[in-house]
Amino acid sequence: MSLETMFDVAGKSVLVTGAAYGLGRAYAEIMASQGANVTLLDINGDQLDRTLGELRDSGLRGQVTGAVVDVTDRAALAEAFEAVAERQGGLDVVFANAGVDAGPGFLTPEGRRNPDGQIDALDDAHWDKVIGINLTSIYNTMKLAARHMKAQGRGGSIIATSSIAAFYADGIVGTPYMPAKAGVSHLVKQLAMELGRYQIRVNAICPGPFITNIAGGRMANVEDRQAFIRWSCLGRVAETDEIKPLALYLASQASGYVTGAQMVIDGGLILRPAQEI
Ligand code: NAD
């Protein structure tokens, strides 16, 4: 198989959740630029329209379509999956990506105690919201992906956006974020075992600090940004576009024997002992 054939996704049917901004948008863009037909789902309709307009103006090879969907709404998400499968002729690649930040943790980047982020101050509604979007909605999305891919019987690739927070608790990102991402990474392993026999591959992308909307708020804070730069082996945070080659790899036949993997892309940040923070 030539290198071109390995990475070829032309004509594939792709769905991306949380695609109006950030990493989701980058996943959609790389796939459509390589000729895949991509549907972008997002809760933010205005930004989704802007993103679709910009993507179409950039002369992609594939089609891009969008729908406003809240991934926590199971019925609406299921309906969106049906519509995409109908319009795009099934589903080959699903990015379960939508997520939110979890506010401040119990430490600041300078190691000072942050009273608002401590467990006794944690608002239960905040916990429920972050777990609901960052874990349960990934489950909702992966479940629908599995159902569609099994029924159509031609395999597929399911890619969940986890985080280095799945393995690495820094104290600085709000507490509910860590168990949510650990849950996503374990869900990926469990589903890889379950779905392998249907040639459905399931992998996690585990980013470190990328400049997106989520991280934008955090990194607009000079102390936070400087801390990430200091902790990274490469001495910088990542541009959103740097996620694209990994997304294309996992979506395509180039990763045909890769499943259950936790693909860390973090500039080496995870190598720092947590005590240094
Ligand atoms: P982002 O805020 O730029 O994009 C997230 C998108 O998800 C937004 O367009 C938002 O509108 C959408 N969204 C939020 N809640 C939704 C809902 N209920 N239904 C549908 N859409 C919803 O952030 P991002 O950094 O691109 O985040 C994407 C994923 O990457 C998240 O799962 C995040 O946890 C993960 N991640 C990001 C980083 C980073 O540094 N940026 C690091 C590790 C993991």
What does this protein structure show overall?
The structure is a single chain. The longest helix has 29 residues, at 124-152. With 277 residues, this protein is of the alpha/beta class. The mean pLDDT is 95. Helix 5 (124-152) links the parallel strand 4 (93-96) and strand 5. The N and C termini lie far apart (46 Å). The relative contact order is 0.15. It contains nine helices and seven strands. The chain has a single domain, classed as NAD(P)-binding Rossmann-like Domain (Rossmann fold), CATH 3.40.50. Helix 5 packs parallel to helix 6. A seven-stranded parallel sheet has the order 3-2-1-4-5-6-7, sandwiched between helices. The chain binds nicotinamide-adenine-dinucleotide.
Topology, please?
Layout: H1 3-6, E1 13-17, H2 22-33, E2 37-42, H3 45-57, E3 64-68, H4 74-88, E4 93-96, H5 124-152, E5 156-161, H6 177-195, E6 200-207, H7 213-220, H8 222-231, H9 244-251, E7 262-265
Parallel strand pairs: 1-2, 1-4, 2-3, 4-5, 5-6, 6-7
Helix pairs in contact: 2-9, 4-5, 5-6
Bound molecules: nicotinamide-adenine-dinucleotide (NAD).
Gist of the model:
This is NAD(P)-dependent dehydrogenase, short-chain alcohol dehydrogenase family. By secondary structure, the chain is an alpha/beta fold.
- What is the CATH top level name? Alpha Beta
- Unreliable segments of 5+ consecutive residues: none
- Tell me the number of strands: 7
Largest sheet: number of strands, sense, barrel closure: 7 strands, parallel
Strand order of the largest sheet: 3-2-1-4-5-6-7
**CATH topology annotation:** Rossmann fold
The termini sit apart by: 46 Å
Bound molecules: nicotinamide-adenine-dinucleotide
What is the CA-atom radius of gyration, in angstroms? 18 Å
CATH architecture: 3-Layer(aba) Sandwich
**Shape verdict:** globular
The DSSP helix count reads 9
Mean pLDDT: 95
Count structural domains: 1
Provide the β-strand percentage band.
Answer: 5-15%
Topology order in helix (H) and strand (E) letters? HEHEHEHEHEHEHHHE
CATH superfamily: NAD(P)-binding Rossmann-like Domain
Provide the structure class: alpha/beta
